[in-house]
Amino acid sequence: MQAHQSPRRITRREWGVGGSERALCAVLLGVLLVGDVLGDTGPLETACWAAGYLAVLGLVFRSRVAVTEDQVVVRGLLRSRGLPLRELTEVRAGWTGLTVRAGDRRLICVAMAKTNMAKWLGREPRADRIAAQILAAAQQARTADAHSRSAAPEYA
Fold first, then answer.
1. N- to C-terminal Cα separation, the chain
2. Looking at residues 125-140, what average pLDDT do you find?
3. Any idea where the domains of the chain sit in the sequence?
4. Phi, psi of 90 (to 5 degrees)
5. In terms of pLDDT, which residue wins out, 138 or 78?
6. Which pLDDT band, with edges at 50, 70 and 90, does 58 fall under?
7. 27-38 pLDDT per residue, tens
């Protein structure tokens, strides 16, 4: 007789901004910064623009969403926040980012927004694929949880 095996669990999966998007953002922001430095601006205005450019670059390079064994973690520019994987009620990809909802709590990962390029080329947006994978992981976690509860012995 074989022992009951629970479904395979996801240990860690992580998504961030793609390499080509990072390179394009870095080049565009670099060109804008050089144009601003070479333009007719004062040192304070240049420093403010540089801080804004660095914040956007930081957001692009740091922002990501990850699925661990028991939670979804959204990392932004300054902090990371998580939601329990088993409690996810909605994962939706939109133009403003990937929205992850568990009950009344909501997280948005701006790095995983839908792009117009995918729509124009007739392709499924990467954000939609990521949302589907997160939903599948949540379903898998709920199924594994139900299996572990049904396999546990009950004592009177």
1. 26
2. 91
3. 12-148
4. -155, 140
5. 138
6. confident
7. 877 777 777 767
Task: State the pLDDT at residue 1.
Answer: 41
Q: What CATH code is assigned to 12-148?
A: 2.30.29
- C-alpha dist (Å) from residue 44 to 38, 53, 128, 138, 151: 14, 14, 42, 48, 66
Average pLDDT over residues 2-16: 58
24-54 residues labelled b (16+ CB within 10 A) or e (exposed):
ebeeebeeebeebeeeeeeeeeeeebeeebe
CA–CA gap between residue 133 and residue 148 (Å, rounded): 22
Sheet holding 71-75, edge to edge: 12-16, 64-68, 71-75, 80-84
| Chain-centroid distance, C-alpha 75 | 7
- Give the integer Cα–Cα distance in Å for 147 and 4: 9
Closest CA relative to residue 12, chosen from 70, 57, 56, 54: 70
Cα–Cα distance list, 47 to 30, 36, 41, 121 (Å): 14, 10, 10, 39
Name the percent of the chain lying above pLDDT 90: 22
Residue 83, strand partner residues: 72
